[in-house]
Amino acid sequence: MIFRNIEDLTEQTNQGLGNFCSVFQYYRKFFFDLNRVSSRTILFKFNETGRDWVINPGGGVELQYQLVFRENRYVMYGLGFNTQKVPFKHKKSPAGYMQPYADSYLSQPDLEKNLLKNKFNYHYHNSTQNSLKKLIDNQYILIGKQINVTRIQNGFEMKKADFDMMLSEIRGLLFETYKAVLDGL
Question: What is the C-alpha separation between 67 and 64, in angstroms, rounded?
């Protein structure tokens, strides 16, 4: 699988996920009692040049799917707890919005065991390993998996087997974890 940048990676990932994008968005619509789905054709939304990451639309103050392309060396994907900002008027702090998701995740230890068994790891921005227990503002904790990529003449290459595994885990293990966290709220 060859891609040029995070925007191209996002587009190819959404295409590879196919109908799952709709399944995910309808689950969110049902769970959060939304009037409409964000988009039936995408899981990840690219919306800002200069960023090396994307999340699912509507995921600003909830558990997020995340896709990252870092340092022209690797792709990372997983579920994230983001307390960096809230995109609308604050009724609570960003950590206040996210703590129930972290609490739900921590109250189901089999979720973490299953992710770790499948080689997902914690990745932190402005945080420490125990910070899921008491989230603070301006941090990001990703439970993700990293895939190395190779620089080629016109972009970057990811092994097809790695890309297929990423799509499978997004549809399977990560979606089951996502649903269990939301159901545990």
Answer: 10
Nearest to 140 by CA among 131, 149, 148, 153: 131
62 residue type, one letter: E
Task: Kindly give the pairing relationship between strand 121-125 and strand 74-82.
Answer: unpaired
Cβ–Cβ < 8 Å for 180, 79: no
Predicted model pTM: 0.93
DSSP the chain: -EESSHHHHHHHHHHHHTTHHHHHHHHHHHHHT-SS-S-SS-SSB---TT-SEEE-TT-TTS-EEEEEEETTTEEEEEEEEE-S--SS--SS-HHHHHHHHHHHHHT-HHHHHHHHHTT-EEEEES--GGGGSS--SS-EEEEEEEEE-EEETTEEE--HHHHHHHHHHHHTHHHHHHHHHHHT-
Residue-wise pLDDT tens digits, 100-121? 999 999 999 999 999 999 999 9
